[in-house]
Request: fold
Amino acid sequence: MNLPRLSVVMPLHDGEAYLDAALASLPDDLAGMIEVILLDSSAQPQCCPIVSHHASRLTLRYVHMPHIASWTAKTNHAVAMARAPHVAMLHQDDLWLPGRLELLLDALVAEPDIGLVLTAATIIDDRGRTLGRWRCPLAAHAYWNGTAVAERLMVQNFVALPSVVMRRDLWLQIGGLDESLWYTPDWDLYIKAALRCRVRYIDQPTVAFRIHGGSQTIMGSRSPADFLAQMEIIVARYADTMSGPRAGATRRIAGASARINGLLAEAMHGRKAALLSVLGEMTRLGPISLHRYFRDSRLVERVLPRVKARLQGGL
Reply:
């Protein structure tokens, strides 16, 4: 049997609402170019019939493992099982967009040893309606020195999780997702990978990232102190990796960005006075650092879709 070119890992938990749409978004692949590894921690294997519905057109490997609850542990386990040289993550509520596989294969053929491929994303709501577009603050269709990407990532996780493709050996080398983190393990993964490889960015939406009331971002941000602590862990963990004349400014902007995210989460959940503190944090940055903050944080692209979703009753 020929090995797949790409392994798509899907950690599942009570995923009946969106799983069929997620799998339907993957292109028919009778040639076996991709394999989909689904590890399901639901109490009962209710996702199995949904998976079976797509077995005639996709290479699927489904395992029911209710003893492994966290999505990070399931994802790391799935990557260990993967047979392809590159891996991608797809959560049960997100989607691939048409043409993604062709774009990825073209990128990997052009440079098979590329460590990390990122793309832009579309943001959708619980009904699949488009809320906005999410881009990385990187030059379109370009290769980047990973250290430069890590510097920008320090300010904010600007990567849509389902857009990422990573070399499997790099994932294993850096230890994969940190299972002690509940909110920022993907951010941590991207930074430590970028510090060790070159990055390709494709400025075209190839995935849809869904925001809804049951998502981890919404549920987790209801504990402001824990939400902020998760981001501050990442800032502290990688602060000393920054070097050069802009290192000090990068650390300062990253710290302010974490605090702003925490304050915005408080505002989204009712404490409107937190918005005044957001303005204070931005004012203290000064014009040059504030420009860098807006460039790297993608604040408008991240916040406006959530505001729109809330106004439409989707959060």
DSSP finds twelve helices and ten strands in the chain. The mean pLDDT is 93.
